[in-house]
Amino acid sequence: MNNKEVRILILDDVHIDAELVTFELVEAGMAFNPKYASDKASYIRSLENQQPDIILSDYSLPGFDGLSAMKIAKEKYPDVPFIFVSGAIGEEMAIELLKQGATDYVLKDKLSRLAPAVTRALQETEERKERKHAEEEKREAALYARSLIEASLDPLITINAYGKIMDVNKATESATGLSREMLIDSDFVNYITEPVKARQAYLEVYEKGSIHDYQLGIRHVSGRVTDVIYNASLYRNEAGDIQGIFAAARDITERLEAEKKILSNIEMLRTLSAELVMTEERERRRIAVDLHDNIGQNLALTKMKLNALLEQVSPAGLADPILEILEMVDQSIEQTRLLTRELSPSVLYELGLHEALGWLGDQMLAQHGLQIDLKNDLKAAKIARGIQMFIYRSVRELLFNIVKHSHAEDAQITLQKSGESIRITVKDEGCGFDIMDMDHLFKKSGGFGLFSIRERLNYMGGSLEIETRKGWGTRVEMIMPQKKRKKKN
User: Which end of the chain is more exposed for a tag (fewer CB within 10 A), N or C?
Assistant: First the structure.
């Protein structure tokens, strides 16, 4: 009880008895403000003027009695304690008064009990007020929490330690097609498309305390399924004891549809990219054949005729100009052959991948001084022509990257079988580069660059891995299927 001044209403028709009651409370050190009433009229007037903290009343009054006074007080102020202070009261009467609502009774010849009785009554009243206030706050908090739960568009659910549903919100009723009453006390996995997976999630929450973005499906009574991700955690009471699991489900149906569209578009773009690469390769081959069969043959024929003409002219005549023309024709023939090999090396089509890579190594040494060590364990393997061409182009691109960026004097090319796939490794011990520059390197590569290699590998169901660091060198590994990827219908 706080130290505020207590408002006490004393109802007694004997003035000296009222003074004795007051004296006893003063002697006990109580801080109070007394109001006095001696009959019904003054008593009712005092109640109307101010609410007392406690009422001390005699039982026998002229034309009025304490029981009636208590009933009047209880109607107006039901929580105010009422103590009878009277003369002789029989035990049966005392019990009846307590049954009727009296807080206590004190005999006038034993007023030493009065102050403790008043103090105890005031303390009990204060405690009741605090409990009532706490209960009211708890009710308001529960109503507030319930309103928040019901306002959520996401299905919310609480599950006890036995896997039974304790409570749900309207969104859960909508997702399942069942009422709250039907859902409560049922097993939560009954409404999930994958019960075993749902049970595992439930156990994981108890083990780890929570789960995040756990994908499941909620089944409606109509058979409709709502794809959701669950976020769940343990909830406890005020004592910290685990009461169960609180789970919130976020509908991801639209997100999954959007992801499917994005993946479909990516797949379409990859397919288009692959078709463009193959179209480009066919066009390269066509141009190379035209260069060899038409321009190359015409240049060879021109050279033959110039040599025949050179034998017919006198040394002092047209020999010098014809020799100059022959030299230019030889240069054109060599440039045509080089261009033909660059566009589409005939060795790849005529002799196969191993010989083409060997020829490529010779060219890298002759033109750029890069020594190539080729290890090929796939000589006897049947590799689709398109895959062979892709390997050749990719290795060629990687070797040119070594020439341009690595400053290495040699490189290793390894072709191995890896299950149903092919593993191609191109390694050098040059200067390497910072792995943080990887994205920049992908974007910077032009033509049949690293980006094109990676995308083509992804389309084929393969992968590209790069290991490098400055001063260590670079290792590029490509893994791809041995056969062409079948087109999806």
Answer: C
Domain boundaries, the chain: 6-132, 152-251, 345-489
Phi, psi of 479 (to 5 degrees): -120, 130
- H or E element in which residue 348 lies: helix 346-350
Token pair 């022509």 in the structure block, residue: 385
Q: In CATH, what class is 152-251?
A: alpha beta
Closest CA to 438 of 413, 411, 467: 467
Q: Do domains 152-251 and 345-489 have the same CATH topology?
A: no
pLDDT tens over the chain, length 489 residues = 456 789 999 999 999 999 999 999 999 999 999 999 999 999 999 999 999 999 999 998 888 889 999 999 999 999 999 999 988 778 888 888 999 999 999 998 899 999 999 999 999 999 999 998 888 888 877 676 667 667 678 888 889 988 899 889 899 999 999 999 999 999 999 999 999 999 999 999 989 999 999 999 999 999 999 999 999 999 888 788 888 899 998 888 888 888 888 888 777 776 776 677 667 767 766 776 777 677 778 888 888 888 877 777 766 567 777 788 888 888 887 777 777 666 667 777 778 888 888 888 988 898 899 999 999 887 766 777 778 888 888 898 899 888 888 888 999 999 988 888 889 999 998 888 766 665 555 555 444 577 778 877 877 778 888 888 887 889 999 998 876 655 554
Q: Which residues pair with 82 in a beta bridge?
A: 55
DSSP codes joined into one string, 420-470:
TEEEEEEEE-S----GGGHHHHHHH--SS-HHHHHHHHHHHT-EEEEEEET
Burial (Cβ within 10 Å: 0-12, 13-18, ≥19) of residue 64: buried
DSSP-assigned beta bridge partners for residue 465? 477
Q: What is the DSSP string of 62-107?
A: TTEEHHHHHHHHHHH-TTS-EEEEES---HHHHHHHHHHT--EEEE
CB under 8 Å to 149, separation ≥6 — which residues? 156, 169
As a CATH number, domain 345-489 is 3.30.565.10
